[in-house]
Amino acid sequence: MTLERLEVTNFRCVARAKLELDPRLTVIAGPNASGKTSLLEAVFFLSSGRSFRTSRVAPLIRTGQQEVSVVGRVASASRQVVLGVRGTRSGLETRVAGLPVKGFAEHVRLLPVQAIDPEIHKLLEEGPSRRRRFLDWGVFHVERRYVAAWRRYQRALKQRNAGLKQRLRSSAIDLWDRELIQAADPLVDYRQRYLDVLAPKAASLVAALLRLDLELVHQRGWPQEKVFSDALRDARPRDLQMGVTTVGPHRADVIVRLRGQLARDRVSRGQQKLLAAALVLAQIEHRAELGGQMATLLLDDPAAELDAANLAGFLERVAGLPAQLIVTALDSATVQPLLGGRMFHVEQGDVRQML
Predict the structure, then answer these.
(1) Would the pLDDT of 106 be above 80?
(2) Per the CATH hierarchy, to which homologous superfamily does domain 1-112+293-355 belong?
């Protein structure tokens, strides 16, 4: 499905905006701090309940207001569905087709969104949580059983952590260990199978864009030489001391290497951005190959930190991507290969369509 219509109220500097989006390409141009990125964040927020810049709702609410809301109409050839999210400083309310729902699983399924912004290099530079989200987004969209497996694991993890904090008897924690181990098996398997397929596709794309040899390795969240039951047993004294489970799929990572070394140690900031962006493109291409519905890619100021040659190669690849594209730029001329579709201009939070 594609996002046809977006209505934004009190989102950062944007008091109110309504956009009719092109099913293939929408370009949003304007000066810095005008609200361009806020519109991309609003799309991301509609899909997942968070921004790609922050997981907190409070910073998204326009100064002086009490709540933020985003409503979007998504459509395929056979149906239309309206999604809505209202956020306050105390929580979120979500709706699908006018009916309240819990969580964002249906939003994410109906409106799969990925973002490439000037901070995309943090996918490589920062800790494992960003790379886990990247991995889980991909698995979620190709394995329908993944959500149930993930929820089962999270319930078991919550109960085990509660037992650790309460310093329950070993026999009680043993029960949660068994449940955690059973819940972890499919989670790890789904992630590994997905990465086994994604890795060669990503390597091919990185070779084309950067002429570098890429390797992606799934780090399960405990020492590779141990089975999970042994890792849990060995970590229990530390877990009791800290009151949390320190090993398991919730600590997993995707190791990104170039010629055997960590990617962040081998390439420049601009190359890091291009490499991380290539991982996202590979993920979208892989999903499309499996026949999944069209994803929406948010591309925020792609010219930032990329030289002319790398930018041209990157935009050429993006132009052929099987996705709905929503792109921001200081000047639309900087994204020349992507011109067409529908264009908007933003200034001081005011959004106007360009004819």
Answers:
(1) yes
(2) P-loop containing nucleotide triphosphate hydrolases (3.40.50.300)
